[in-house]
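Please predict the structure of the following assembly.
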Amino acid sequence: MGFVVSAIVVGGGLLWIFIRSLRGKDVDRRIVFGFVGITVALAVLFQLKFGEVATPIVKTLFEKIETLPPGSKIVISYDFDPAMAPEVLPMANSFARHAFAKGHRVYFFSIWATGQSLLQVTLHDIIEKEFPDAVYGIDYVNMGYKAGNEGVLNVIITDIRKMYPGDVNGTSLDSIPMMKDVHSLKDMDLLLSIGGGKPGVKEWVLFAGDRGNIPTGGGAAAVSTPLLYPYYPKQLVGLLGGTKGAAEYESELIKRHPRFAKIKTPALDMMGPQTMAHVVIISFIIIGNVSYFRSRRKQANNG
Amino acid sequence: MRMTITQTTHSLSRISFLSIILTLSFFIGVSQLRAQESDTSAIAAEQTQVPIANLGQITVTAADSPDDNGDRITVRWIDPGYRDLNGFTGYEIFRQSTTDGEFVLIGNAALVDTSFLDEKAPTGENFSYKISAVIGSQRQDSEASSPVSSVVQWFNWGKISVVIIGLLVCSAVIYFIETAKRGKKLFLRRIAGLEAIDEAVGRATEMGRPVLFVAGTQDMDDVQTLAGLTILGRVSRTIAQYDSQINMPCRSSLVMTAGREMIKEAYAMAGRPDAYSDDMVHYTTDEQFGFVAAVNGIMVREKPATCFYLGAFFAESLILAETGNSIDAIQIAGTAMPAQLPFFVAACDYTLIGEELFAASAYLSNEPKQLGSLKGQDLGKVVAMAAIVIGVIAVTASEAWQIDSMTWLADLLHRMFAIS
Amino acid sequence: MRRQVPLFIIICVGWVLLFSVFIPPMESWGEEASLFFDIIAVFAFFLGGGNLIRVHMMKVSRKSASWGYSVVTLVGFLMMLYVGLFKIGNPAGIGGSIDAKGSWFELMFTFVMSPLQSTMYSLLAFFVASASYRAFRAKNTEATILLLAAFVILLGRTPLGMVMTAWIPESFSIFQIPNMAIWIMNSPNLAGQRAIMIGIALGVISMSLRLLLGIERGYLGQEK
């Protein structure tokens, strides 16, 4: 029902614009903006949903976490800000869920000042609610934020304590059980960075993964994903690109771990609005070309 | 300034590594895929039940880890089949120092591991190692390894190929700088974006509106910011001469300080030091989209006639350029962020693509020393292109016709360009 | 002297950092330099904050155009600073983590900053639409190829692409839109990206060498 209403409203509007452009009237940018807004709003309102299947680049990362022996040490770094959060926070939540479900030890880092606050969402909504038995200091630790961008990685690849004498609360690392056998990032089994800016996944690859020969993966905002493809599969185990990558991971997580069948799937939910927005953009490109060819023919006739 | 140095050098080493990976990563990818296949099959080996007594001992060897500053010993072992037994949970690694004589547990290794890196083995001291396979409550110990000590290496031989390629490119750059200094004329193709600077500033002067300059959204630690600031020098000098106005919002306070210095100097050189004001360059916020909101606000309120976006940009590139487009500003952009280039190309009048941004200072100054460095850079391109072509031929011939010499050549190139 | 000192530091630390990559005993020197950077980065926050207050205070006192915005900026800045510095409402008191659940700072971050930033980021959706409407015109052969590639990618990044081409038999699955999108991203796009990146990498090497040799001084404000 929702899809039909959306299709009629959006389709009808686009047809009207198409006819206008055929009559030689240009499309104002505000009409474009308005249409994108209405389309996304309708898709959100009617909760349009589509299925997703994990592509190889997502699946290899999933398999990596899946096949690591329980108790493996995984770093999850929150390298993003609230702006990127709707796109990449679902990835971070999925990684955390998966790692906890498999019994891995998780080390949360952040080399973006804003990442530390966004980590609270995962700690509160995912770990405290879905994994109430997880114990701080034994199953997970929050290392907090340190200023210095990739300089931080440059140091902790050889010695974590040099940069982090304590965790986010100032507790000495030596008194945290899961830090006992951790000297540097080289003691980790997998590094996961979630970001989309600098420093981000690329810096984790260049300054930590490559230098320490540690498997590295992560997720990035769609706009910066093309930059990271060259690192796959040699330097990146796998990569989640934008909402689609996050949605693929969520669908794989639900498929393989039935305990997550009822979880919230923000990325899968966002694919509906994204699909509709793409359709509108494609329609506008077609309309733009029609009016371009029309004006060119007119010019040729006049000339 | 210390940051500049640190970051510049980081960028140098980082980007040199990057270039090397990229040059031949297509066939590294092929070999990686093969490696993955064999890894998967190894892991997938079915667990079998064999009596422990029939398996024999684990063989252990220990050796100094290569290419490091000492303190590290790599322990390797060959498992005759304990890992395939039911109840096997992993290995325990024990170390004996020749001075205290006791074997002490120093770490654990997972099921799939065949090596362990001891990072706390003081240089010069001798150590022996033992491995214990843990099967349920039982332990199966290996013989002790021969004593070994860690040694300081004075050169990281694993990076020798980087040194060779780096030296080659750097020598070419220095050679052409010297050639140019001797007075040889070097051809430089026209870069439209840079040619348009005067025209763009002139337009702002005629319209009586300011010029907006954004030196990227990264700090002084990014070499692109330095390139952007270099162009700022030229732009602000023209602005000072034309008696136009400049507005430079900054996301970093260090960029703000550097920007002020440059503009102040440009005004002094134009003979109008009084016209300079510190307010021309101001800090907004470190937050990416807070900065975008601030710049967009300036654009909409002040309606600058010309906008320069030169430096490193992320997702904000299109928001800035489209807003600039909506106020009919003439826009000149330049970045070395490949993902943002399409947005700038779509929305701006001129775009400096990647290396053109770095070439700008040489182009604008026309100094022989700087021009020479561009020519040297071209030689680097020739090397990269040759390596790609030879690599493609070698891998294709090796795969299709199993020619041994081609396999050897492909391996050689792989070793040269792969990062260990 | 104002130029020579920074230049000297650049050249010295630059070469030290370069050598620290290749000479293991010098590795710790590189780390020390990184620590210096971190310390300076922290102090830079004061520089920026001070400038922000000065510029906007002046705008308010002079009643310059749109000075109202400056008031909003100052109030926001000082409020966040006060709440964060004194950890107002922090359940663990002054010793607790700055963003502890329930603290005012956390509330302002979650309910003011996050939505504002997300709003700015979401503008991209609108600008991508208007930019593609304007830029993707089949003006010539190259532009037409670009246009077709854009269509495939846009459809391939959504489930719609699969729905539209699900009828294509498995043996011709490469012609299914999502697979074509993956091919475009992984082959022509990646090749182009790599070419640009190699060019950029060489540009950076050349620029870095100019910096290390002291040839490039434009960013220090010294131009002829």
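The interface with chain B takes residues 29, 67, 69, 72, 81, 83-84, 113-114, 149-151, 154, 181, 183-184, 186, 189, 196-198, 206-207, 210, 213, 221, 223-227, 230-231, 233-235 of chain A (CB under 8 Å). Residues 90 and 266 of chain A are 6 Å apart (CA to CA).
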